[in-house]
Specification:
Length: 187
């Protein structure tokens, strides 16, 4: 049996597991948001970074990469890796994946995706919405074992551009971070 995994954050540019194929595409009725706290990669328990999760959003799409893992051995290794890497994401969903913007039929069904829910009883690291400036200030200051939080944002922005995808939330946030960094440098 083949396993497909959808990446919409750092999995886009750094899968970290062996895969046989990858497809650029999207899932429907979700949007990517910087609402998940990261205390283990891009921040600390004292000062969490912000990483992306998905939230339901009618008539919107979230672009990313679907990775195909074919062998049982590779699937076990990928799941072991992902369960550690995505441990702060409390929910797994199995969604339809599309490669054509006009398609009414999905290219793949049952693609696994990790989601950090907004239920603070289940997800203690959920930070929720904030103003663009508040998100940017937190991302500028946060740093964890995987590096500065701003690097995560800029890598995501670059990866999406390379895929030919425009994500307004990511672009606006990256521009706000750059603006605030310029103001810091100027003062």
């Amino acid at each position: 049996m083949v396993m497909w995994v959808f990446g919409y954050g750092s999995l886009i540019w750094k899968a970290g597991f062996k895969y046989d194929d990858r497809l650029v595409g999207f899932i429907k009725n979700y949007r990517r948001v910087f609402f998940q706290g990261s205390t283990d990669h891009r921040g600390t328990p004292d000062y969490p970074g912000r990483t992306v999760t998905l939230e339901p959003a009618h008539a919107q799409v979230c672009w990313g990469i679907a990775y195909k893992v074919s062998s049982k051995e590779d699937e076990e290794a990928a799941l072991l890796h992902l369960e550690v890497r995505e441990k702060q994401y409390d929910k797994k969903a199995y969604l339809d994946f599309y490669t054509e913007s006009t398609a009414s039929t999905p290219a793949l069904c049952g693609v696994m995706v990790y989601i950090a829910s907004s239920d603070r009883k289940l997800n203690k690291n959920y930070l929720g919405p904030a103003s663009l400036e508040e998100l940017a200030r937190q991302i500028i200051k946060a740093e964890g074992p995987s590096g500065p939080n701003r690097d995560y944002l800029f890598h995501l922005e670059k990866a999406l551009v390379q895929l030919g995808c425009e994500d307004e939330h990511v672009i606006d946030l990256a521009n706000e971070v750059r603006k605030l960094l310029q103001l810091e440098t100027a003062s």
